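> example.struct
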């Protein structure tokens, strides 16, 4: 009997077309789940017969309780090589092999700039007015050249952000808990004196840190109040970096001009969430990683991971 594999959260229905699953055809039966299953009982019912699961990074928590309800599971594959929502120790204890895939930092960088530019030039409002027969030119855009881009985090994505900011003629400042002046200078950025200095002096603040216990809630009321009323916050990293309640107050009360968001504490974002309707929010449904190239990497290497596991020589193991 063939092993069974479920691919979770294939919202666009493209997982099977994004890679050649043919090499597995005579050994593995693959099915896809397009809807995100937040109800754990429903999730278990959908995949409890599977030996293999392919999950999108940090979308479906795989903890000890879920693993206990999936006794057939033998191989868990995540997009990317890091997934904080997988309990690696529990997987090891239950004999579940966990493997990852490559993931490019270019797509989230590009999407961050789409949000930043959309905010600066009021693209959604102007496009909507043009489509609906509204006023011809109703906003005045913010310049990028000569303005300050503040980067919270200067890793792979932050470094790319810095180079693009410089190309737009922006001044770039950066801060993170362990960032040095030398490291910042390598990427053409000025090291901010401290976190508050970065928020107070930037026209656009973009977040690019890994979420951890140390960075959760890193951006709270003090940081948001330090920002200029004309400044924008962009978060394509992780929602937990920002105090959600403080951000809502900042947007509603005009502490900042607006926010560009691609990540949320609950995904999909609930239909009644105010972030869906606030006029100074440009929000996208977590599209940072969603490109043809990245999907080709994710699912192409998922096939390789399964082949290697079946051959008894797992590759790209995590933990």
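> example.seq
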């Amino acid at each position: 009997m063939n092993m069974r594999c479920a691919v979770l959260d294939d919202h666009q229905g493209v997982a099977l077309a994004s890679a050649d699953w043919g090499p597995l055809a005579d050994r593995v039966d693959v099915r896809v789940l397009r809807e995100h299953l937040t109800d754990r009982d429903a999730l278990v019912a959908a995949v409890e017969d599977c030996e293999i699961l392919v999950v999108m990074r940090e979308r479906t928590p795989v903890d000890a309780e879920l693993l206990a309800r999936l006794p057939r599971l033998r191989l868990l594959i995540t997009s990317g090589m890091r997934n904080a929502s997988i309990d690696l120790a529990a997987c090891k204890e239950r004999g579940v092999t966990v493997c990852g895939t490559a993931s490019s930092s270019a797509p989230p960088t590009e999407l961050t700039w789409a949000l930043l530019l959309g905010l600066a030039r009021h693209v959604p409002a102007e496009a909507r007015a043009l489509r609906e027969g509204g006023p011809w030119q109703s906003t005045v855009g913010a310049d990028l050249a000569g303005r300050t881009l503040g980067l919270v985090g200067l890793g792979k994505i932050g470094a790319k952000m810095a180079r693009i900011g410089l190309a737009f003629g922006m001044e770039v400042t950066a801060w993170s808990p362990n960032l040095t002046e030398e490291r910042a200078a390598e990427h053409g950025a000025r090291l901010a004196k401290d976190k508050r200095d970065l928020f107070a002096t930037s026209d656009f603040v973009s977040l690019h840190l890994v979420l951890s216990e140390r960075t959760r809630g890193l951006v709270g009321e003090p940081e948001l109040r330090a920002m200029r009323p004309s400044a924008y916050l962009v978060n394509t990293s992780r929602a937990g970096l920002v105090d959600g309640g403080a951000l809502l107050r900042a947007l509603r009360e005009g502490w900042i001009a607006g926010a560009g968001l691609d990540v949320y504490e609950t995904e999909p974002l609930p239909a009644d969430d105010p972030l869906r309707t606030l006029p100074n929010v440009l929000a996208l449904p977590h599209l940072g990683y969603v490109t043809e190239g990245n999907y080709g990497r994710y699912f192409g290497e998922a096939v390789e991971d399964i082949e290697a596991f079946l051959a008894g020589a797992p590759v790209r193991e995590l933990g």
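> remarks
The longest strand covers residues 3-7.
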